[in-house]
Structures
1.
Amino acid sequence: MQVTPMQFFAAMDGARRGWLRFMPGPQLNKSLFGMLMLIRHTGCKHPEAPGVRISELAGAMHQSVPAVSQKITALERQKLVCRLAHPTDRRVCYIALTEKGRELTRQMMQSFERQVEQILLQLGEEKSEQLIGLLHDLADVLEHVDPIQPLFTEEPKGGETL
């Protein structure tokens, strides 16, 4: 049986919709959740630093410094992160988790790990290993495939929206 592009799309879309159920609660959208977890993870890699530089976060997230700064401001409002000045270079600013941010990310990681463990348990060891291998293969293929052409070459006519 040959898999069609629509079958592939439907499977990927179903996985995406299912995955969305495992995202953070109402206090954080996916973008802020990702930022918070990146700050946590990057801080663990560099325990000698007082925090993570905004430029490092921007690079890791493939976003502009102003866009990342806006997200940091939103996390600051929730008292999940704080900005720390460099002791000798006023141009450098570090971002660190607050105690509230550390506790929230700890709880989120525990919840996430429990959810993924349930998924893997339901799949079984063999299918889980196959899935991980296939996802790595898919990521490799997607990185090396030529970029797709735009689906639409013309603007919609007469005020139509897609």
2.
Amino acid sequence: MKFFFTPEFHRNLWLRFSPFRLIAAPLIILLIAMTTTRMPKGLGDFDVTSTLYAALSIYFIVVIIWGAYEAANAMQEEIRGNTWDFQRMSSISPWQLSLGKLFGVTSYAWYFGFLALALFAYAYADYRAPEQFFGEQNRDSPFPEPDNDTLYILFCLVASGIIAQSVAYLYGFADSLAMFGRIWRTKVPRGIGAFLVGAFAGSYVFTYTVMHDSVRLRPRASLMFQHVDIHWYGHDYERHLFVVMSLLFFIGWFLIGSYRIARAELMYRCMPTAWMLFVATYVGWASGFVPRGGSGVGVEVGAFHAALFAYIQAAIIAYACMFAEAGDSRRYARLAFHLKAGDFLRAFENTPKWLATLPIMLFLFFSALTSATGMEKVITLPHGSAFMASFMLFMARDGCAIHAIHLSFRGRGTGFALMFYYLIVYLLLPLLAFTSIDLNLSDVFKSVVRFKVPENVGTVTGTFYPTGMTDTSQSLFPVLIETIVTAGWLYWCLSRRSNPAPVVIENTKA
């Protein structure tokens, strides 16, 4: 409860609430309830009341859409009002800042949303019989107790709103600080990207849980029209319990991410250990959905496919971080400075996220190779091993090229140069090569995606895309040459650039 007594949370409450707003929300809910209760039951093919559907629609619009928009623009309000520097110099803790700002700027959306939840509970109780909605009645209490299905729906409604707002807030926080750090004070970002990402995340959770389980109801049936267990790591888990635990997992990490970025901005020391733990736990969670075989070779093949899937996810995360952090020359300068000084702890603090992800990626790579040992009889395994090595080389090639482009093109020309690079190496040059030798594009697709290597594909496909061909001269040798060339380009760019001693501003708070 200490969070609710923070100055940041109270400040946002004073800014968001007024007597008119306090009265307007319940008045709107009351008018909607009076209007929809006079409408006939049934909505298309679904046996639901108009009030029930209206309550869900209001909650979705107010909490997920509007709440995500408010959270995405939370930091921009501070930058516009020139209050962010004052907050950074205050004694507020990172948790108080992040949670107070996240739930403070969305406090009115939650006030409106909880009123919509009350309308939803009323409409749902009217739709289902009281004993079906509340469950068994306790003799010692005049009110029946809610059943698990009802609590599940209410939890998913709240969780979808928290996920939408926390994702939008985290994305908008990072985006606003990136613009603010470059002293683009006249170009305040509008937070459209953060709003869209947050709204999409919340909408996905809302659709997968609430709309799937509460709207598609059979008349007077149980809340769940079918209870399907979730198969995870070879075991079956009850769907409601698994969804609840997964939502808590992601909510926790999104809140930790908000805390970590606030901690860094308040000049506390931040090591990438939390990021590494997030990547490890996320890929572990996601790879559990890969099907396992029943027995014998099938089990070993399933273990390899799970490791391969986890490796691909870690590689994609590392690639995205590398693309986003390639232009952060100050971080690289601090990292090189501390490495030369022998201060490895400070160097670890300034390690980019993509470098911190590489150990996890390499661990999964060797884990997949170990699980594939002795499985030569399975056709897909050698191809999968070759694909992992090819993917890693392509990532190294693009990484060298991206950093070289950032060193060569500064300012506004960097974005166009990156777009030009990807357009050339992944579209125009491959099409030119394939059409010049009359290669069927369907054969190329099979060699890249399905690991089936037609005889006429050969080295051409392995030159432009990661493939699973077992012949290293076709899948690995061409991209290895390209990686060496781009590494030479990066070395040449580094040698041309002057290297004055960087101005190191250290985080002094423990």
3.
Amino acid sequence: MIVVNPLRKCKLTGELYRRLPEIESKLSELLQLPEETLVERSLINDKTSVQFVPIECLVHIV
């Protein structure tokens, strides 16, 4: 399992932003995929699909 670096931006209170656990898990999964597979999955628009890539993950990868 790949460990994803934590977010670095802070809230006005000084507290670090955190990703939702499901986003952390999805990122770990996605970062292990071949680039071609990741591109194919990023084209899926059906949010109910297990293959769907959330926008938070796409932003991290890009």
4.
Amino acid sequence: MGESACDRRFCPECDLAVSCADEACPECGAVIEPPTSRD
């Protein structure tokens, strides 16, 4: 499947939609784990 993993993510703490470039939530400051890539 050719879907982009780097599109839209959600903060695990406050569920805010964050961009894939963000390493921390701009709203609550929680660290956002990058999606695990599987081959």
